[in-house]
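Why do we care about 3D structure at all? Because function follows from shape, and shape follows, mostly, from sequence. That is the central idea of this module. The next example makes it concrete: a single protein chain, its amino acid sequence, and then its structure expressed as tokens.
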Amino acid sequence: PAGPERPRRSKRRRQELVWAADSRECASDIDAAAKGLEDLHGSVVGITDACFEFQSDVYQRFSGYVVKHRIGLLCERILSTFDGLRSLTVGFAARPGLAGSAGDCEDVLSLEGVADAAFSVAEDIQLLDNELGSIVEDFNAAGDGSLQTVVREHLEAIARNLVSAVEMQISASKGRGSGGVRLFEVAPAMARNLFHVIQAVFEQLTESVTYNIKALRVSDLPRFLSRLESFPATIPVEIKRGGPTSVREGTCRDVPAVYNAQHVHDPISDPDGWRNRDVAGVLSPRPSIQKLLFTMSKSVPLSYNVIAVVPRSQGGTQELTAEYQRMFESTGGFTSSASDLMSKVGLNAEPSCAGVGFAYSPAHCLFDKGWGSMIFSLGTEPPFDGVLSVSEMSLKGFSHRPRPFVQPVANASESLEDLIDLVDSVYKSLNTPSPDALFLSPMVGNCLTLRKLGPSRRSKGGTAGGGNMGPPQLTPKLIWVPVNPLIPPPWDLAPNFTQWHRNWMARQEQASSKSGFRAEAEWWLAQCSLASASKVLAEQGYSLLHLEHSFAVFVLQGLWPSLAPLVRDGRAPPPSLYDHWLRGWFCSPVAPTLFGLEWCSAESLAMLHNRSASSDDQRQRLCDFVRKHDLPLAVGVAEGPCGSAFSTPSASPDASRAATAGGASSGAGGRSPQSWHSWELHDVPDERGKEYLLESQNRGRCLPSLGICECFPPYRGRFCEQAEDGSKDAQRPYRAVLHYLVGDRERLLADFERTLPLLWERFNSRFDYPVVVFHDGMAAASRQRILEASPNRIWFAMVEDYTAVPAYLQGRLELDLGGYALGYRGMCKFRSGPMFTQPVMRHFDYAWTLDTDGYFPTDIMTDPFERMHSGGFVYAYSHVSRDQASAVQHFWEFCRLYLESKGIDPKGTKMMRRLTDALLLRDTYWHEWNRVLFMNDIEITRLDWFRSDRYQDFFKFLDSVGGFWLYRWGDHAVRTIAIALWLDPSQLMSMHVPYGHQNTCRCGEEHPDEVCVRSSPESWWQCMHRSLAPARASGAEEASGDVGTVHESVIFGGD
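And the structure:
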């Protein structure tokens, strides 16, 4: 029933089921569950295609874009419902266990979990009913209301029958019913029913939608605006994976597209024959191989030849050309028969352009259009023979093509590995130096196979890692490489495929054979990860073009510009490897069911791209996966924790430079390389409507002159729509931030990589404040180093005019004197005034300034921000010092000029009188500033005071006279005079926290029994108990504990 009663009834009925479900049952019929999952996948593909193809007569109007946007969101709701049905389909079935074993019941849903999943699906269906009703009404398809009535009846029947089926299953499991209900049959059947309902609605909508829709109801404005980039071109509906991982956690938001949406397939200009399905059997949201090559042909001639390496099991027995038949005399001039083992498990489907899974072959799409082909057909079982079948280019059609020329490659090789070696010798002799495409079947090898087929002969003596490889002998324009899509970048995993294949054949003789999804999944799990495949192909001069589920497509780097018309706007940063993985696999609507990979993997590998997980836990999870599936790993990579050769993620080039104080490892504070979106490593480009959205919601800003935008803490994402709140933000009555100013130079980056883990370990792991990194331009590799140095939540903020010297000062000799570069002088100016008014600081109450080479030598146990807020302080300082005269040239004179012009008494406060008292230090003149100041390499400021008109007016005057550029005036001098003029000492807080900086260090008032020690001048200080300090090795240095050079009584006076 509809109406307000429905939620209460659902909740009550759900609770009754949960109370009844307190046990766990494990079904042994894994194959039946696999079959159910395969059936469910058919419905997922059907709904994906129906959504992707949704069209109406107004698709080029604004209203048409609205329709497609809302249909996309509706489809994701449907897919979320299907994801719940997937949980029920395999919920009682044990996951497949170690290769060849019966299964593992550890991850089976409890009966309570099944009940909960069932009611979640039922509630999703109710929400779907509401959304469908809204869409039908808004898109003028309601008619007399009969469609909505019928749809509602069907949806309620599906939900009701599902709950009844679960009730029967629970009763049977507890011995109170007759049983007979098999959820892995019921759930897929309900998915089919739901698919048919949606189909009927879509047919009605297609006929009814007009340009004048009743209500827009655009609920995700950033996503809609990003699609408007293609307006008014024809674009497909965009849909992403359903389910909690992508929807609730936002994993699949803001994943950049590789191609412009209008170039995927243009129904007006592109031939229908270019509309292909990919390996998953879905209409691909990527240009077809024909379109890629057609676009490329405008810049470079095509060879009209394609190479494929496929197993004999798919091509069947072949007759050799007459002159070679005597080499196969024992078999009558024919190759060995098709694979018995492959046929036994059903892995013998003939490859075709429309094939799915192992039958998928983009090479055949070209062959069917008249391309010539060179197909290596390999017997992957004894006697391991192989042939090369050569067909010339022909426009006569498939049935009239000349018979192919079939020549031997090998007969009766010892192993698949030996056979691949022989294929390599023939491959490099082919007379087509740049074939249009190369396709490698996952039943023949993985990315490591291309280390044999790719490199030229002269590089054969190179290292196993490919470091000395020369250019490949043949350079296909495009290469299709099978990958294991479950392993996210940056994790490297490269199984030894030939060894795995030997083990697989042995298992088939010892155990009952699998079939369907389970049989196919094993082979995909033996493929390289995307990161490993990309590394192997990069050695040979190829770049990743896109990922289509379990195939990575690479393009020869020199030909990348030829595809520029198809790819996204060049202003946007290129997608990262992680972005490619998200778009091509994880966020795909069919990924949860495709080949049953996520279920058959027997390990949840989502942890590998979960940044909250420790690197040790991530590595262990991957090791468990390797062991579970008996994957032998390639020789020649680093020894790892799995008990055999194992490669951890590839770090950024300079990541190894990061270290903690005293050279110790980073421990819990450091992180292994992570998965990053491109927008996390680059400034995201400005887009239509973005500036308004970001600034009206106070979530970020755009810099039109630079064409970039950036988010403010706690927001992230392409449109700053995702919030990454701190763990304690909600508990605080104030907002605070830690900030650094970092140049993109190696020395600064190395120091920063070193200090960030200490910041986390010794302070921020307890208090979790955001960290803002100001910069004037920073490369993606540098950002990655910073992000991966620690678990701190980090945001980057651009400083536009950081080193912009006024025109009237340019060319002055003083700019080059004193040994201070423009960057340093710009830093002094920035931290004197503009820092407080930066947009990113606008919504914070307090800011803690730190230097890249300043750090905490031991733990800070109490929060200085909390103390500052509760005490009502305006400024917190760490120590007092005295500046050198050459660094404050003419500073006091200009200060006096400002004060007198404003009628302000330079000696009007006690602190100012102390700072201008010649008798205190006895080395300055009367009325002259004695250069004593608050050092601000570590300080906390209350931002509203430093943003005030009074302070900013003082700074603007000093800035206008050019002293920061000409004389290197320091920000600490500006800060000190302003504080002494306008603050009472009671508003200042002395902050005796542990602090190390260059040659000074103290352990702070919280650690009175500790002293600072370092092993050498190059090492960083660390605190230890006094009793342990003498035990340090000879040559160790102990700090005095004084970080200031002047006692603070010079400023404040005595009691």
